[in-house]
Automatic annotation (TrEMBL):
Keyword Transmembrane attached: yes
Protein name stated in the entry: Manganese transporter
Organism: Vibrio olivae
Residues spanning the membrane: 53-71, 92-115, 121-141, 148-168, 204-223, 235-253, 285-304, 316-343, 374-396
Keyword Cytoplasm tagged: no
Keywords noted in UniProt: Membrane, Transmembrane, Transmembrane helix
Pfam families listed in its UniProt record: ArsP_2
Amino acid sequence: MQTAKLTQWVLNGSFFSQLELRYKRMLLPCTLMALLLAPTTQSIAVNTLSDAFWAVSSYVAFTLALYHYLSQFFSQRNTVVDLYLNSRHFQVLFAALLGALPGCGGAIIVTTQFVGGRVGFGAIIAVLTATMGDAAFLLLASKPQVGLGVIALGVVVGCLSGWVVNLIHHDDFMRPKTANVAAPIDQDANSAFEARAINLQGAFWKWLIVPASIVAFLGSFQIDINQRLALPAQSIEWVGAGCLVVSLLLWSLTKEIKSYQSTVSEDCKPRISHPMQRTAQDTNFVTAWVVMAFLVFDLTTQLADLNLQVLFNDWGVWMPLVGVLIGLLPGCGPQILVTSFYLTGAAPMSTQLANAISNDGDALFPAIAMAPKAALVATVYTSVPALIVGYSYFWFFE
């Protein structure tokens, strides 16, 4: 039955429509396969893609799975929620804590509540200052102690920024009188092929998350899995590279790129979707941007004989400003690039901190749609503590 349906999709053109140029995501897995097949880049590509899958994607998937399963238990109305909605002072604290949650869900919630009149402008500043978006998952997966430290710093700076804004402005500052609330997304609008690709993403990570996490854990302790299992050299590296290409191939078939937002932000997910399906979609989105950053770093370093770390070090005092400016861009994609460059050593910690404070992740898109003036002012406001934090770390520690 399943074979017959797949054959029908191929014959009626649904399959080949995915290969049209407008599905630009396909360019990424195709490029990766070309790099794996080319003798000149094969060694670099195998090691880079393997590291991206075992050392990043596996940990990100594990972290996301825990997050999505646990988030199901924290969605009911309670005393804490009532305190958050009724106290101007605690609104800022709770908004900063919501922003500290990895991903953009908490920031989007506070943004929507501000437009609806339930929280003040100070809460918006607090949540946008504290949020790191999906870059938090990457930092937590790769350097958990650093990730927790950056998140904690974001909460502190978010609270201070929100309370200062509360002293300057009233709660209704920049609140639109009539909100342009976007219409709900029609999840049935996806083609049958895209829906099947989304399901396959979930199935892929459902079966691989445990063994992939084990391999990633062993690799973190510098255990040679090829030697322990008596496998030929580079076996586990080729498996990792292959798994990464397959995961991104499935990801590339789930959404058509039509705009800047569809490029740099996560796919929309129905509320009824399974936590593992959400995990797969978010993991593959993060992985796509991480792979691009890793490849840029490795290819330019080894093939072009250009050391990005030395190059960026020459920028010196400008690096925190670069982190802030990239943070002004809506969406999580550019912010994942900054974190990836920090993890590879190309960007200093001051740049990472400045970007973490200034970036608003995907939450900026609904803010622009519903309250564009408030979004613009909030973005400018959050850049101020970002500059202070980034340059403070630069002058005192770098």
